[in-house]
């Protein structure tokens, strides 16, 4: 029998959100749930075409998914982040690429909410459904000019850029001698960048994680934010967006957004694995029903425990930070480090779970496009994101535990 925690995740139950201190009904999930079967039916086409159908993006937009973390003053819901992550898991359980794009595009309205109010008006003033992609690696250059900066660069892995009309890009400010002096995130409209279709990979194939190129674009000062200030939990947008959502750490919000789709993929694979294996008969090793094999039973136990442990820790941490933000209390560094520790280990456990399922599913699950095979590829592809790399985050936690200073913006 599957456990209640991850089984409810795959089916899109709102039980998990209530467990972490968000008692209100997840109305966006209610609106998304009727579309989950069609998202699952389109998953193979997404994988083959490297595109999420326009119909899916329209359905998710109408359901309010991309406005969940958007400021209320611009038509957003300012929802509890646990509700957003629950919706992401439910979608990713049906299609990894769709879940990933939902999470990445859905988290960016939160980040834009930290920018100057003028920048927010530019993004949402005429269209509250405007979507924003990102590539946060500081590979761009910013040269100071009157009233702003001149931006140039080439950014890889801009997930969802084919479905967005603005981009958040990482860049270094160059000083008088041409040396980097500060690390910024820059908000750029689509008119100022080009997208090169280069994303043809083994997993998460439909995420449109393409390349963005900018050449000598002017960026006004109000569309630039210092990463140091963001790490210190400050931003000009907090002057107008005063709710608890905008007092949470970037490291929590964004890194959880790149872990949750993987948990959704693995949870969905687990449910499909159970359905497929209940009726399977072994063709070797003496034959017999697959479900009677004690090794298969143990594999299910290991996988389900890894999924549950990952989800429970992430939910606990989001709840703890939300409660402190609501009370306007400081967010302790020890808690922020714990969030990063548990986030990278959640991804690691999810991969362990899906590896167990993949190994024991048998040769009939190896065919290209088989849901178990596709989920295995998607989970491993998503785990390559730098935010899911474990050793750096674990070392930071260890430094904090030993009382050493922490100097990292991704905490």
Structure, described:
- It is a single chain.
- The chain is α+β, with helices and mostly antiparallel strands.
- It has three domains: 4-116, Orthogonal Bundle (Butyryl-Coa Dehydrogenase, subunit A, domain 1), CATH 1.10.540; 131-226, Butyryl-CoA Dehydrogenase, subunit A, domain 2, CATH 2.40.110; 246-401, Butyryl-CoA Dehydrogenase, subunit A, domain 3 (Up-down Bundle).
- The protein is built from 15 helices and seven strands.
- The chain has helices at residues 4-11, 15-19, 27-32, 36-41, 43-49, 54-63, 81-94, 96-112, 117-124, 227-231, 250-277, 294-326, 333-360, 371-383, 390-401, and strands spanning 132-145, 148-158, 166-174, 180-189, 194-196, 210-220, 224-226.
- A hairpin with a 5-residue loop joins strand 3 and strand 4.
- The protein starts with a helix and ends in a 10-residue tail after the last helix.
- Mean pLDDT is 92; it is low at 1-22.
* CATH C-level name of the largest domain: Mainly Alpha
Radius of gyration: 21 Å
Indicate the CATH topology of the largest domain: Butyryl-CoA Dehydrogenase, subunit A, domain 3
- Secondary-structure content class: alpha+beta
- What is the terminal-to-terminal distance? 37 Å
CATH superfamily of the largest domain: Butyryl-CoA Dehydrogenase, subunit A, domain 3
Number of strands: 7
Q: Please outline the major beta sheet.
A: 7 strands, mixed
Q: Given the C-alpha coordinates, what overall shape results?
A: globular
Strand order of the largest sheet: 5-6-2-1-3-4-7
Number of domains: 3
The average pLDDT is 92
Which spans have pLDDT < 50 for at least 5 consecutive residues? 1-22
